[in-house]
């Protein structure tokens, strides 16, 4: 008698595992959701340069203040950005170091422009300014490096003069 409930449970389980044939009436297929393209993550004026991020950031600032029509509004070195206004458009110029594995073990920096909300910026004015930056950056980076080297070289001499002045009677 105890085997009867166990046998019935086994029959019910096996009946549930039985595969059925094709249903005689097909259900309408559910249409696939439309594919939505992701927003662009790059801008037309985005470019890379083989240089250190800090050198690139410093050089962009120097070029920006000398470029006619560019209104230098501010900067944030910790965020690697400049806030600029060019031909009536406010935007950020960002510098970002790229991973060495991605660039063949070369020190490379990506320069791009974004809206004030951080979205990619697709505008002819910005593309024009970034193309100007790209042309001017190699020479300006060399100039920034030379200026920094001269400042480092001058510091020990200034310290020696100050020390000598303190020790003289």
Give a description of the structure.
It is a single chain. The chain has helices spanning 3-17, 53-66, 124-167; strands spanning 47-49, 70-76, 81-86, 89-97, 109-114. With 169 residues, the chain is α+β, with helices and mostly antiparallel strands. It has a domain at 47-154: TATA-Binding Protein (2-Layer Sandwich), CATH 3.30.310. α2 crosses α3 (124-167). Residues 35-42 have low confidence and may be disordered. Residues 144-169 are annotated as: Disordered. It comes from Lysobacter stagni.
Biggest sheet statistics: 5 strands, antiparallel
- Alpha carbon gap, first and last residue: 118 Å
Gyration radius, in Å: 33 Å
Number of strands: 5
- Gross morphology is elongated
β-sheet strand percentage: 15-25%
CATH topology group of the domain at 47-154: TATA-Binding Protein
Poorly predicted regions are 35-42
Number of helices: 3
- Placed side by side, the strands forming the largest sheet appear as 1-5-4-3-2
- Written as H for each helix and E for each strand, in order along the chain, the element string is HEHEEEEH
What's the pLDDT, averaged over the residues? 79
CATH architect. name of the domain at 47-154: 2-Layer Sandwich
Percent of residues in helical segments?
Answer: 40-55%
Which CATH class of the domain at 47-154 applies here?
A: Alpha Beta
Q: Determine the structural class based on helices, strands and strand pairing.
A: alpha+beta
């Amino acid at each position: 008698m105890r085997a009867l409930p166990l046998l019935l449970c086994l029959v019910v389980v096996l009946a549930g595992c039985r595969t059925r044939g094709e249903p005689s009436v097909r259900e309408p297929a559910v249409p696939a959701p439309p594919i939505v393209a992701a927003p662009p993550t790059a801008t037309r004026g985005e470019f890379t340069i083989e240089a250190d991020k800090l050198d690139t950031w410093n050089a962009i600032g120097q070029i920006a203040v000398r470029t006619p029509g560019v209104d230098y509004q501010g900067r944030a070195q910790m965020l690697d950005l400049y806030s600029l206004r060019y031909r009536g458009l406010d935007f950020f110029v960002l510098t970002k170091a790229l991973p060495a594995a991605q660039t063949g073990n070369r020190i490379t920096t990506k320069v791009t422009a974004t809206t004030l909300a951080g979205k990619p910026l697709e505008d002819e004015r910005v593309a024009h300014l970034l193309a100007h930056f790209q042309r001017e950056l190699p020479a300006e980076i060399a100039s920034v490096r030379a200026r920094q080297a001269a400042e480092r070289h001058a510091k020990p001499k200034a310290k020696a003069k100050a020390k000598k002045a303190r020790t003289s009677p």
